[in-house]
Amino acid sequence: MLFAGAAVPLALVLSFGIALMLALSAAELAKRFPSAGGYYAYTSRTLGPRAGFLTAWMYALYSPILPGFMLAYLGSVLDASLRAEYGVHVPWWIWLAGGACLTAVVAYRGIQLSVGTLVVLGLLEVAIVVALAVSGLLDPGPGGVTAQPFRPSTAPSLHGLYLAVVFSIGSYSGWEAAAPLAEESRAARRAVPLAMVVSLVGMGVFMVFCSWGILVGWGSKNLFGFLLSREFPTFVLARRVWGGAWVLVLFALLNSALGVAVACNNVATRMWYSMAREGVLPRGLAALHPRHRTPTRAIALQLAVVLALGLGLGAWLGPFQAFVLLGLVFSLALVFVYGAGNLGVVRYFTGEARRELNPVLHLVFPVASTLALAWAAWKSVHPLPPSPTRYAPVVVALWLALGLVVSLRSPPQPAPHELAEET
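RE: above sequence
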């Protein structure tokens, strides 16, 4: 909404097409190299250990940092809404600290609790947001039910639409969270790829439908009012159609942020664990809890990262500006990670596994999605967006340069651990 304005459904459709090609390609590697390392394992195996390290290095700008600035932004929204409606003041940093600690506890107790928590939070969020979208379609605002939000002309600018596509790819990015759980899953070579694709399709249908329903409920003849609303427009719509029950949408927002934090925590801690096990990071991070079999030190490291970034940047820039800056940072980092994974698909299936080559899955999809990612990323930073978002490409470039130096100065590591063949 920040960049696409009323064209959010269009941005979500475009980014879904790109994300689906990415997921289908990555699933091909997940079938053959199930590992807790996820993309780190895939690129290490197909492009070499140094490429795998660099991919994990760039991935550190995604899963490890996302919970911090998302929980900080969530805290600021919850604080403002509760103060405006009920006069209750709970500072954003308390929401951040509480959410981060809750996420760490869930991760510490084991993957079954993590997955169960994600399912419960996800179902609650989906039910509330779908109900609001349906209410918007049944009781539309000025203009009635229309497809206008799917037109590029409803975006503030094409540059804003490009930015929205890049950000939207990041919003779909949870589909690969299943990959690092391969070593804790049954029948991982079948279950993990299926979970990656099915979860993405479900997210795509949900997000496009709900964004359209909410915009229709607001009113297609008042889309500029949607853009210029001083209050979160979804809350405004919820008050109109639900009255006092609008607080359910606030609850759904909290659910969403906690769900993303848990998912990202699972990915980040398993990545730290996998890299430590292979000697890329200190081996102490590979320590497992004797009962829960969870990487406790990796979980502690992730908690420290979330609190340091969330509290530090939130206090320095403010939760909203930190959200915008780091949102583009992790989106650009994902372009590198996904691009590296796509290159691994092409190289593996045109070389070692040439007999299994499928031109669509192993050539067309990875090449087309990589080009689309690169184009959207370039257009999102050229011309440079306003400050502090304009510094995002600088942060990503400096981090990549530092990773190159570290990878070149370090001895190559063995390929990450993979599961044995399943019977």
